[in-house]
Amino acid sequence: MINKRLSGDTVGRSHASQVGKHLFWPVKRWQAMQIKALRGHINHAGKSAFYAGRLAKTIKSLDHLVEFPLTYKDQLAAAGEAAFACANQHVREWVTTSGTMGKPLRVPLTEADLQRLAENEAVALNIAGLNRGDTLILALALDRMFVAGLAYWLGAQKLGAACIRAGAAYCAQIDVLQSLLQPGSRTFVITVPSLLAGAGGAVCCDNHAPKIQAVIGIGEPLRTLALCPNALAQRLADNLRVPLLSTYACTETCCSFAEGPLCVGGHLNPELAVVEIINEQGEPVPSGIPGEVVVTPLGVEGMPLVRFCTGDIAALYTDPCPCGRTTPRLGPIVGRKQQLLKVRGSSLFPSAIADCLNGIGDVRDYAIIAQREHDLSDRVELHVCLARNSSAIRERVALTVRALLKVQPKIIFSSSTTIRQLQSAANPRKPSRFIDRRISAANSMLPH
Fold first, then answer.
1. Which of 167, 189, 228, 423 has the most CB atoms less than 10 A away?
2. Positive or negative, the Cα torsion across 66, 101, 256, 230?
3. What is the pLDDT of residue 201?
4. What fold, for 4-333?
5. pLDDT-derived band at 101, boundaries 50, 70, 90
6. SS3 108
7. In the chain, which segments carry CATH 3.30.300.30?
8. pLDDT, tens digit (0-9, with 9 covering 90-100), for 319-353
9. 340-444 maps to which CATH number?
10. Distances (CA, A) of 216 to 205, 212, 258, 278
């Protein structure tokens, strides 16, 4: 069922007819393309010292991929340059991961990798509806060696769309963001959704003024596991009155799963990746069942990966999509494998706490802090900034949190300045609303 609150009522298929035609192919046709690309990718990956001798098998079908070993982040960190399959003189761009779960990982991109990245995002942005002659406002970080801003810029350029490199600060005021809209051009905004949730100002009600065509959200889920809008999506839809679309990607794989106006979940681009969902035993799970997202990015030169474990938990859906594309869709990231919290007998991901807080209208901003209480339980503190602060509102927030989460975390009502400091303290490169002090506590116990 199409949820118009999230996706709007515009039809994106006319745009997809120009870019990403292969996403509409019969399944057997794009699978044959995947197998051919996978064989070449595995041969190239074997050129790196990391994979040398580990990829001797011949791939005969996609089902045989499970016979290859999984690749983990810590293995790549330990391998360093041994994971590269290109010489330094062929590198044209160095990017790094955010370092959320440890030291940032360097990733080399060759000229061919940059072209692949442009193609990847051109297809992803086109699924969302962006096309030649449109405008894309990049309201996100384009520095600090992050690949995201670079990728979206490259993709928009390949599509023939105009770019406005605004940065994340423009999300603070809706009226300022709207001042960037170009008359006579359909304008899309790509940003972290929660940056817009606390924005001030008012949406322009002038029917003749330019309107935001859609907001493309990155880094945060906009749907529940049932593929319905979550609390953050509902809040933004009410405030902005524009379609909200989501996309998922990770730096190591440089692959995107993108949602369009009629899509229910983010579509895989089969030309550039093979995706699996596995359980804790490493076995594949059925369609619609959450597990760890494992990606084999196809056609990568610099750091080719085979069966890379992202650490992200999501479900893959293979039933027909209303948009007509035949490729699998990735559902929302419900959490990271290492971030699962155990609170006095209950297990939950920080995303469940975030969804709860995003659904409370008086909550302007927050930080979730996890600490180890003992081996079988974690302690969770919520630092919350309220738009209106009174004893009645504070009590209502506490009751709502306890009722929805079935646990009773400690709630500290703080200023926006204090919360921003907490969000940036653990990782200045990429501020986060979830601060996992269990990791630092565990690292401090390791022998030096």
1. 189
2. positive
3. 66
4. Rossmann fold (3.40.50)
5. low
6. strand
7. 340-444
8. 999 999 999 999 999 998 888 898 877 788 999 99
9. 3.30.300.30
10. 21, 11, 9, 28
